[in-house]
Design a protein that fits this description.
Structural class: alpha+beta
Number of helices: 10
Strand content: 15-25%
Order of helices and strands: HHHHHHEHEHEHEEHEEE
Radius of gyration: 17 Å
Largest sheet: 6 strands, antiparallel
């Protein structure tokens, strides 16, 4: 599949690249699974398992209305564990910044699941582009491939979706406003990642992509360039940057 890049995204990427450290390939990234268009389409259309989430559409807990993406992301992650009860959805929308969701996971959620809590700790990472390189971001994101971890990302839609995201089924409607939470199920590399003719952010991301289990049912699961996801996380939420939460099983 060919990725298109419109003028507004190109301008955004040029501005952001000036302050973001370049990606340097290393051996750990070399081990990322190779993906092709057929495999990606199968994952997004709920035709292929993505361990530990089985078929993506079957485990996503969709938010009932806008504003409950943090709660829905928690329940989507809990569905990846066998026999774990889901968390009740609160009657009032609660702010879900990086620190707030991490604190809720380590206190309220863990307490409610004792003595058989499926994870032991939650770690949060702000994607401050002055301190976290794209290489480090990929290392953290790639923990989604390991059964001993779960990964949630907090990103700004409008920063990454100036156009229809790559590989997102055309039937999925797009909303471009506000920050959003969703789990990441898998990270891999496209087979054409060594193509010397690639330009723009395609040349920077080395073909690395992430499968996002979007809890907004207007989207559903989709695959996005890891570099673009990095940019959407490297955005301000109040006085701090958005980022990731890693659950250690």
């Amino acid at each position: 599949m060919q990725r298109a890049t419109d003028a507004s995204e190109k301008q955004f990427l040029r501005q952001e690249k000036e302050k973001i450290p370049s990606f340097q390939q290393d051996s750990s990234v070399d081990l990322l699974p190779r993906l092709d268009d057929k495999r990606i389409t199968a994952m997004c259309d709920n035709q292929a398992p993505v361990i530990p989430y089985d078929k993506p559409d079957s485990v996503i807990f969709s938010q009932p209305v806008e504003g409950y993406c943090g709660d829905a992301s928690i329940n989507t992650v809990l569905r990846s564990f066998v026999g774990v009860k889901l968390q009740p959805i609160p009657s009032v929308v609660r702010p879900m910044s990086l620190q707030v969701l991490k604190s809720r996971l380590e206190t309220e959620v863990l307490e409610s699941l004792k003595p058989n809590a499926p994870f032991r700790a939650a770690r949060h990472f702000h994607v401050d582009p002055r301190e976290m390189s794209f290489k480090r971001f990929v290392e953290l994101l790639s923990l989604a491939n390991k059964p001993g971890h779960r990964v949630l990302v907090n990103f700004l839609r409008s920063a990454g979706f100036a156009e229809r995201p790559p590989f997102l089924p055309p039937s999925r409607a797009l909303a471009l406003m506000g920050g959003h939470w969703s789990p990441v199920a898998s990270v891999g590399r496209l087979p054409h990642s060594s193509d010397a003719n690639r330009t723009g952010h395609d040349a920077d991301d080395d073909g690395i992509v992430a499968l996002v289990l979007d809890v907004n049912d207007s989207y559903g699961p989709f695959v996005i360039s890891a570099y673009r996801l990095y940019l959407t996380c490297a955005t301000m939420d109040g006085k701090t940057y958005r980022g990731l939460i890693i659950l250690d099983v």
